[in-house]
């Protein structure tokens, strides 16, 4: 193998390595939201009426900030509908004003957390009884919502 062939191989290998690195950084960059959703929570001391709450916490473990835009609760008809994020005809519940000191839209920086709670009324109870209730958070970085099943 002469010098020209060696240089061609070095160029090809380094070009392929650069391409793979660019694909890797593209796939791993941006916000990476982690959602925790818990139902049946109580506040102590209990406010008037002693309501039950659904508590939601969103953290950003990615490499870029994003803006949280909506909080949804939905029960999907099937697994494929969930994967396509296709809401059922009955629709889901969108929490317009979650109970929090940081209302939506809210800019979520890297490493930051956002938390809220919503009163768990009869609509939430019906959705929870199905065993297929999902909490979804919409954000500005992606058209897909981040989903977390509520137990």
Topology:
Elements: H1 3-28, E1 33-41, E2 53-60, E3 66-75, H2 79-83, E4 93-95, E5 106-108, E6 113-119, H3 122-129, E7 133-139, E8 146-149
Antiparallel strand pairs: 1-2, 2-6, 3-4, 3-5, 3-7, 7-8
Q: Which CATH architecture of the largest domain would you pick?
A: Sandwich
Query: Order of SSEs, N→C?
Result: HEEEHEEEHEE
Q: What is the rounded distance between the termini?
A: 64 Å
Please give the share of residues in helix: 25-40%
Average predicted confidence as pLDDT:
88
Specify the CATH class of the largest domain. Mainly Beta
Query: Care to count the β-strands?
Result: 8
The major β-sheet equals:
5 strands, antiparallel
For the record, the count of structural domains works out to 2
- Percent of sequence in beta strands: 25-35%
What would the principal axes of the Cα set say about the shape?
elongated
Judged by helices, strands and strand pairing, the structural class is alpha+beta
Number of H/I helices? 3
CATH topology (level 3) name of the largest domain: Immunoglobulin-like
